[in-house]
Amino acid sequence: MEFKRSSGILLHPTSLPGKYGIGSLGKEVYEFIDFLNDSKQRLWQICPLGPTGFGDSPYQCFSAFAGNPLLIDLETLKEEGLLLEEELNLEEGFDHDYVDYGRVINFKFDLYRSAFQRFNSIASEAEKSKFEAYCQNNIEWLEDYTLFMALKDNFNGRPWTEWDEEIKFREDSAMDKYKEELKDTIEFHKFMQYLFFKQWTAVKDYANEKDIKIVGDIPIFVAFDSADAWSNPEIFYFDENLNPTKVAGVPPDFFSETGQLWGNPLYNWEKLKERNYDWWIKRFEVILDQADILRLDHFRGFAAYWAVPAGEDTAINGQWESGPGADLFNVLRDKLGKLPIIAEDLGIITEDVEELRDQFEFPGMKILQFAFETDESNEYLPRNYPENSVVYTGTHDNDTTLGWFLNSDTKVKENVEKFLNIEASNICWGLIEAAWSSVSVFAIAPLQDVLELGSEARFNTPGAPAGNWQWRYKKEMLTEDVKNKLKKLTDKHRNMN
Fold this sequence. Notes:
One of its GO terms (molecular function) is 4-alpha-glucanotransferase activity. Pfam families: Glyco_hydro_77. One of its GO terms (biological process) is carbohydrate metabolic process. It is globular and about 70 Å long. Helix 4 packs across helix 5. It is an alpha/beta fold. It has 18 helices and 12 strands. Strands 9-6-3-2-1-12-11-10 form an 8-stranded parallel beta sheet. The chain has a 4-stranded antiparallel beta sheet with strand order 5-4-7-8, with no helix packed on it. The protein has helices spanning 27-38, 74-79, 101-122, 125-137, 139-154, 165-168, 172-181, 183-209, 227-231, 269-274, 278-290, 326-336, 351-359, 401-406, 410-420, 427-436, 447-450, 480-493; strands at residues 6-10, 43-45, 213-218, 246-250, 260-265, 293-296, 304-309, 319-322, 341-343, 364-367, 389-392, 442-446. It has one domain (6-493): Glycosidases (TIM Barrel, Alpha-Beta Barrel). It is 40% helix and 11% strand.
């Protein structure tokens, strides 16, 4: 798909400000969209929107289709009569800099249950009909997801492989039994999905009205403890007891000397091909309703992926295995048309990965923080970019630009000044300008870089067991000065109208 030269900001909704402990889809998100519009940004990139599990990572969700209930805005529910003012009074305020997920979950889910009870009591027939229509329109994934979540509640949060055998293996009698026993909890989880997508659709519509496109994110893999793995075991490499025989990861690279052992189940691509990739078609259909452009995470895994035997402690002892290649993308194109995909082609990229990317004209990614370890032939230097590329100062996996620079060795710092003529005192905006002035069709910076924040604002450190996905900005950080500076830079380099 041919993209229009644009620039934008990377910010996950959990990082929005607000008084209830986590960013949400309320007034603050509309104010952020207004900031984007006023500063002439036309892209808002987010991480996956799914319901997060252990570790709170948006890349390890309970479903590849569902939305994260923690993003539901409470003030909107109050305006709709589903919550009362006194229910939103906080005895003790939340931290405004970081998300305390455990506390947020307990606080918000209690309120969602109150809203659900009130909805059943006072909602109009028209609103109840909308809810029923939503459930029916999304029945293909919603039924399995909500039963899965109800079962997790029933089994005290344990992974599905530790449930009773009959429901672990989805025996018909057990499925019927639990659907009846847990029908109220199932309905509650359906209600939360209804609220999430109702609010998210309004947010996306508002952004689109401002000529801002949402850049969504599709992780190539799903979490093992997910509705996707439990309800579709035949499309993964599982043994007769439904345990993975091999799992996903990446070999040693820039981020880790022992690679990254993600642990996600690996797809049985032969089985998916027999089904004409029906699961993947549905996945794209759903996310294309949520976003305008799709960043396809770990794109190289569609050419070949790193398979690690189950039970390994690190990713070192894996091996490359062939992915579906062009076959999958041909089917997707036939079914859904030419797709608006950005290929996350970082890491160990071989010729077959580049050929697959270029065959479908997907722009690849260029990360400025990777540009200064070697000489001026480095592919991540702006002078070496093709137009069909997307340049970032850094991604959600990188340190902030300020943190990265301060922690870099002398050679890297010298190369920054030598190659881009950027002084240390202006490193953040210097790199932003280098991105904005490049030939890349899209230029994107994390909000932390626009705000010139250090490592304390890093969003994720790959391999770190805790402390990720927590950072939030404060409303007062989006000053007129920041807005005007970004607008001026965009007028100068991005040719925005």
